[in-house]
Write a structure and sequence with these properties.
The complex is a heterodimer. Helix content of chain A is 40%, strand content 16%. Chain A starts with a helix and ends with a helix. Chain B starts with a helix and ends with a helix. In chain B, 69% of the residues lie in helices and 0% in strands. The chains are: A alpha/beta, B mainly alpha. Chains A and B meet through helix 4 of A and helix 3 and helix 4 of B.
């Protein structure tokens, strides 16, 4: 009789292990960038194409970097949360537009000149922001996704919390839900701004 | 040409043809001018996981990100960077998860040691079972004289029929 309890126990342990495993999100890959300085970049600003912006311009401030694109469906889902955030919270939110044109998949990039891509990207990004609201202090344009690679972007939207020293303190992959914002991001921002 | 040679040529052509199309699909607009670099790219990208379709290597995946990363690796090969530098470049950005063969360290100990531990556990259980069985057999008493004669009688009865 005793050994049946044993087998039952082992089975229960297996079920528990699998249940925990199924509950995990395989997309949620821990970023090695957390705790490291935010990679430098120098990209054109969407609203003022004659100017560039980089993380060094935010030195001494706690800020958020949100990676988005007009072709990204989940970005549209999270956007109202960001718009609401922009109205209520004074922490600057910087947008990083990721591969606006070439990420879309609907264009044959071998037939498009760099100038045309840039023009189209700015048009599309501006149109999207005027349609859905613009919570960003400013948005920079990562046309070829090179900066995205430095930030380990693999699924837009992604959001980074960067502290006063320019160190990445948190990375969230996927759309920001009110829960994520309220339970993870806002408390962290409050702590960093203390 | 006999039929066997023909078959051999056919098999060789199919195999070679399939690997050739495979290579061209993963290297896009190609850079076949430098076969050594392409070979390194192929080798490196087979070691790296694509984060978009997580069960595919960067070599196999046709996801946007995999294409970008292949472009990135190609650039680094052109710049004369070593394999280790290129792999490190990926790990710094995407973590050990990009490696199809993650390094042995604290957090990956279960991953590497798990199968060995399970096999050892199985061996222990097996050995214990075999030992117990052996003592049980040894404990079995041989038949007594009375039992032997009865068994003989039964056997005889069976063969007479």
């Amino acid at each position: 009789m005793n050994r049946y309890y044993w087998i039952l126990g082992a089975f229960a342990a297996l079920v528990a292990l699998l249940a925990v495993g199924l509950g995990l999100n395989p997309r949620d890959v821990p970023s090695p960038l957390v705790g490291k300085p935010a990679p430098a970049f120098n990209l054109t600003v969407l609203a003022t194409p004659d100017k560039t912006f980089g993380p060094k311009d935010m030195a001494g401030k706690v800020w958020l970097l949100n990676v988005w694109s007009s072709w990204c469906v989940s970005c549209r889902a999270e956007h109202p949360v960001l718009v609401e955030f922009g109205k209520k919270v004074s922490v600057p939110l910087i947008g990083l537009n990721y591969k606006e044109v070439r990420g879309d998949g609907g264009f044959d990039m071998s037939k498009m000149a760099a100038e045309d891509e840039k023009k189209l990207a700015f048009e599309r990004a501006n149109a999207w922001l005027s349609q859905h609201g613009d919570p960003y202090k400013l948005t920079v344009m990562d046309l070829d996704g090179r900066v995205g690679i430095d930030y380990g972007v693999y699924g837009v939207p992604e959001t980074y919390v960067i502290d006063k020293a320019g160190v990445i303190r948190m990375k969230h992959t996927g759309p920001i839900t009110p829960d994520v914002l309220g339970q993870k991001i806002l408390p962290l921002l409050a702590e960093l701004n203390k | 040409m006999n039929i066997r040679a023909l078959i051999a040529v056919f098999i060789f052509a199919t195999f070679f043809g399939s690997t050739a199309t495979n290579a061209s699909s993963t290297t896009e607009a190609a850079l076949a001018a430098d076969p050594v670099a392409e070979k390194r790219l192929q080798h490196l990208s087979e070691e790296l996981r694509c984060l978009v379709c997580q069960n595919q290597t960067i070599a196999d995946s046709n996801a946007e990100l995999a294409q970008d990363l292949r472009r990135e690796i190609r650039g680094m090969i052109k710049d004369g960077r070593s394999d280790k530098e290129i792999i490190d470049f990926m790990v710094v950005r995407y973590g050990d998860f990009v490696l199809y063969r993650p390094p042995v360290k604290g957090i990956t100990l279960l991953l590497w040691g798990g199968p060995v531990a399970l096999m050892l556990l199985g061996l222990v259980v097996l050995i214990r079972y075999l030992r117990r069985r052996a003592t049980r057999i040894a404990d079995d008493q041989p038949l007594s004289a009375d039992e032997t004669s009865r068994a003989d009688a039964l056997l005889k009865e069976n063969t007479q029929k």
